[in-house]
Write a structure and sequence with these properties.
With 428 residues, this protein is an alpha/beta fold. The protein has 17 helices and twelve strands. It has two domains: 240 residues, 3-Layer(aba) Sandwich (Rossmann fold), CATH 3.40.50; 166 residues, Rossmann fold, CATH 3.40.50.2000. The protein is 48% helix and 12% strand. The strands form two sheets. A seven-stranded parallel beta sheet has the order 3-2-1-4-5-6-7, with helices on both faces. A five-stranded parallel beta sheet has the order 10-9-8-11-12, sandwiched between helices. Helix 5 packs parallel to helix 7. The radius of gyration is 21 Å and the shape is globular. One of its GO terms (biological process) is vancomycin biosynthetic process. It holds the Pfam family Glyco_transf_28. One of its GO terms (molecular function) is hexosyltransferase activity.
Length: 428
């Protein structure tokens, strides 16, 4: 079957769907990825078809008035996303429609779900949602996309519904634009928009070991396990030489996060590593860490390998501990590697993942970026490196995740949906 996979957002949002595309192709389907232009090299390197949606979300988020301005503030983050969708909505609607021409089924990530539902409904196509966070309402825990709260039952469920309304405010411009183009009536509000997705089969690409499936989820939502793109990742020769030269280093990187004070963040990391006398691989990413203090420390003799990005699949099993921002993808990679994490959350679901790793015994209490100091990082990293019980629990978690078969589960959800006689969405 010809399947279009719609995935918008950062690399952490897109990469799991590229992995799914590879698995669907191996199962005999004709698959292409619909995403923005910045991810074309990754998609084509995986051997998949590619259809572009104009607008480089990564470039927009890298701006200093982007992610750095909303760190720790979910309402500001939603306002940023609403601004981005208003700017890009006409282009996204036009390009997404064209990119789905010829598809016999759609798979959509979180950011594309409302547009995908409109297209699937208008064209009577099967649709499957893919969630990278456990976003369905539940009483077991609060929404992973709001600051952590100790609530359960109805109060916890309420946080999911409140966040759904906020998400709709950010997404409605693009959804309205697309529905206008194809002649469908606009959804009157958040309740109607989310109701349109309630009957759509979904897989949640999250480890059931780390987040057990809530018993109160709708039956058409499966918790399958993380999705990993295990393409051949040969490290840079200099990185390999550094890692293999002595004891396992620490990994430190904040991925696509953009810090308000990247120089101070880098200086705090340098000081903590120096006090612990640990060598480290440091990925400066989009702007979470300014390279200047790191390079200066290296030139003064500290054992640091400084680069912009690293191959997680190759590197993380070879490190002693992983200091990261708590994005879903990096959390999954660190947990699968079986090494302790020190999470420095910036925003959104990163606080949720930090809490989950803490509860699993695979991480010390998190150090939010706004409270990052050399002393706090030193304390947390010393615990991750020196606590034998934590290292054992991280290893057990890694073994469990490696045995879960998340990819097979996600493929099964998709294939069941596209072969059901009533699998296509009806026009509404």
């Amino acid at each position: 079957m010809r399947i279009a996979v719609l995935a918008y957002g950062s690399q952490g949002d897109v990469r799991p769907f590229v992995a799914l595309g590879v698995a669907l192709r191996a199962a005999g389907h004709d698959v292409w990825i619909v995403t923005d232009t910045g991810f074309r090299p990754m998609v084509e390197a995986a051997g998949l078809g590619y259809q572009s949606v104009q607008g480089d979300v990564q470039a927009l988020l890298k701006q200093r008035d982007g992610l750095s301005a909303v760190t720790g503030n979910p309402l500001r983050a939603l306002r940023l996303m609403r601004r981005l969708t208003r700017e890009l909505a006409p282009v996204w609607a036009r390009d997404t429609l064209a990119a789905c021409d010829g598809a016999e089924a759609l798979v959509a990530g979180n950011a594309a779900a409302f547009m995908a539902a409109a297209i699937a409904g208008q064209r009577c196509l099967p649709l499957v949602q893919g969630w990278l966070q456990p976003i369905a309402p539940t009483g077991d825990f609060t929404s992973p996309l709001v600051p952590p709260l100790r609530l359960s039952g109805g109060a916890a469920r309420l946080t999911h519904h409140l966040f759904r309304r906020l998400v709709w405010l950010a997404a409605r411009t693009a959804a309205h634009e697309l529905r206008d183009r194809i002649g469908l009536p606009r959804w009157p509000g958040a309740t109607a928009a989310w109701a349109a997705l309630e009957t759509v089969p979904a897989f949640c690409a999250v480890s059931p070991t780390l987040v057990p499936r809530p018993a109160d989820w709708r039956p058409t939502a499966a918790m399958t396990g993380f999705l990993f793109l295990d393409a051949a990742q040969e490290p840079d020769p200099a990185l390999r030489a550094f890692v293999e030269a002595a004891e396992p280093p620490v990994y430190l990187g904040f991925g696509s996060m953009v810090a308000r004070h990247p120089v101070q963040a880098a200086e705090a990391c340098v000081a903590a590593l120096r006090r612990l006398e640990r060598r480290a691989v440091v990925a400066t990413g989009w702007g979470g860490l300014d390279p200047a203090p790191l390079l200066a420390a290296r030139d003064r003799g500290m054992q640091l390998h400084v680069t912009e990005a690293v191959p997680h699949t190759w590197l993380l099993p070879r490190v002693a501990a992983c200091v990261h921002h708590g994005g879903a993808g990096t959390t999954a990679a660190a947990a699968r590697a079986g090494v302790p994490s020190v999470v420095v959350p910036f925003l959104g679901d990163q606080f949720f993942w930090a809490a989950r790793l803490l509860a699993a015994g695979a991480a010390p209490p998190p150090v939010p970026i706004r409270r990052l100091t050399a002393g706090r990082l030193e304390t947390a990293l010393a615990q991750a490196l020196g606590n034998a019980a934590m290292r054992d629990r991280a290893a057990v978690l890694g073994q469990a995740i490696r045995s879960e078969g998340g990819m097979a589960g996600a493929v099964a959800v998709v294939e069941q949906a596209i072969t059901r006689p009533d699998g296509a969405l009806r026009r509404d």
